[in-house]
Amino acid sequence: MGWDGRPIPYWLYKLHGLGQEFKCEICGNYTYRGRRAYERHFKESQHQNGMRRLGIPNSKDFSEITSIEEARQLWDVIKEKQAVNKWRPELEEEYEDEEGNVYNKKTYTDLLRQGLIYTTKRRCISQQENDCVHVKKLKV
Ligand SMILES: [Zn+2]
Q1: How far apart are CA 25 and CA 69, in angstroms?
Q2: Would the CA dihedral through 106, 107, 108, 109 be positive or negative?
Q3: Domain named Matrin-type: which ranges (predicted)?
Q4: In angstroms, rounded to a whole number, what is the distance separating the alpha carbons of residues 72 and 39?
Q5: CA of 53 to the centre of ligand 1 (A)
Q6: CA–centroid distance, residue 16 to ligand 1 (Å)
Q7: Same domain membership, residue 107 and residue 77
């Protein structure tokens, strides 16, 4: 039944997704009726407070996420990405030799230039797999 007491046409009912219920764990398992109410609620205070309690910024990356576990996982991924962006390869990229000695990029480049080490096949010890180089010390 609609607001005027007449039955809502089925297509309208379907259009607004009124038959659907959406439960949001972040909102303390509150149930939203209808697609639109559900979509809108991500920007509303109840959801924002829920996100704040989790210590997660309510950015648009988190819209459509209602599970606390998923929100946490996504937040971890985002934090990791931000860390990689801030990562300075010259200082922090690491190279490891056969004996397990770890050099930063500058030392590695210097040693390489002096012919004290050479590189062999790729092996990952740093965060960016494609940039990884395996370093071997020259036998002297
Ligand atoms: Zn919510």
Answers
A1: 9
A2: positive
A3: 22-53
A4: 20
A5: 12
A6: 19
A7: no
Tokens of 62: 């988190």
Ligand 1 center–CA 8 separation, angstroms: 27
Residue type, 121: K
Same domain, 54 and 31: yes
Q: How far does residue 1's CA lie from ligand 1's centre (Å)?
A: 27
Domain holding 127, by residue range, is 89-137
pLDDT at 119: 67
DSSP assignment letter at 8: P
The verdict on 66 and 95 lying in the same domain is: no
Of the chain, the end-to-end C-alpha distance in Å amounts to 89
| Ion ligand 1 neighbours, Cβ < 5 Å | 24, 26-27, 47
The token pair at 65 is 């996420």
pTM value is 0.52
Q: How far is the CA of 40 from the centre of ligand 1 (A)?
A: 10
Q: How far is the CA of 42 from the centre of ligand 1 (A)?
A: 6
Q: Compute the distance from residue 79 Cα to the ligand 1 centre, in Å.
A: 21
